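Structural prep section.
Before we set up the soaks we want a predicted structure of the protein with magnesium ion in place, mainly to decide which crystallisation condition to try first. Input record follows.
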Amino acid sequence: MSLLTKQDGKRNIKLKDFDPGANEGLSEAEAIAQSAKLLTELKDLQYLLYAASQTSVLVVMQGMDTAGKDGAIGHVMTGLNPQSCKVASFKVPTPIEASHDFLWRIHQQTPSKGNITIFNRSHYEDVLVTRVHELVPKKVWSARYGMIRDFEALLTSAETIIIKFMLHISKDEQEKRLLEREKEPEKAWKLSAGDWHERKYWDSYQKAYEDALNETSRPDAPWYIVPSNHKWFRNVAMAETLVKTLRPYRKQWTKHLDEMGTVAKKELAEMRATGKE
Ligand code: AMP
Ligand code: MG
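Run finished without errors. Recording the tokens verbatim:
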């Protein structure tokens, strides 16, 4: 049994069926212990991914304001070697970015072979904030789902493993977190009047998320809806999903490394035999 369900597009997703406070019967202490174990395995898998350099990994992080994207990325990164992993954050497009198609800035940041890239927000903003605030006409944003499916299929065809996380919090939890930012001096820097303004659009955002999830969940580019009211559950659920997605590649990557090692040793032996060192 897995903590999260792989959304491959076969079932219709209704966000109200997903409890943002779910914990699958885990206690906080159990979740933290499991997470630590999983992150150790993740580092091991990352090493094989990097060494074999046959595949790349793209992790997409989306969620409402305060859903915990930054915290979740920080947690996952504790289990990764920064040498072959990076985070790309997507903010309001710069004038140059805005003067190109919406995937232009995204494609430049996709991972090369052997590497992991985590997207902190992504091309999905162009069917979320853009839709909710009517920044472009419906005709334009609605055509983007197909473009996103095609774009992700292109990445898959270039051996990119895609994992998309939607961090799911409740409206009450968001209010609690926004108020915490005001109370706690070390969180106050994150305050933004805009977040309270965006909150007014909660229902429109939920609808836009639901449509995006249904339009773009595919077997090779699945979404995972992560109950995120409990940060410790969010962390263990993401760690487990990453490990379970990469684990099946262990054999293939190890085999490739063995082959690479055999070739290298053969070359070395020939060099020594011929004395051409
Ligand atoms: P933050 O993640 O808190 O730093 O905020 C980044 C802001 O950039 C959020 O309000 C996003 O909605 C906004 N943003 C990201 N991508 C886009 C986009 N393509 N169009 C408009 N706003 C965007
Ligand atoms: Mg923000």
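Observations: The beta strands are 56-63, 85-89, 116-120, 160-168, 223-227.
Flagged for discussion at group meeting.
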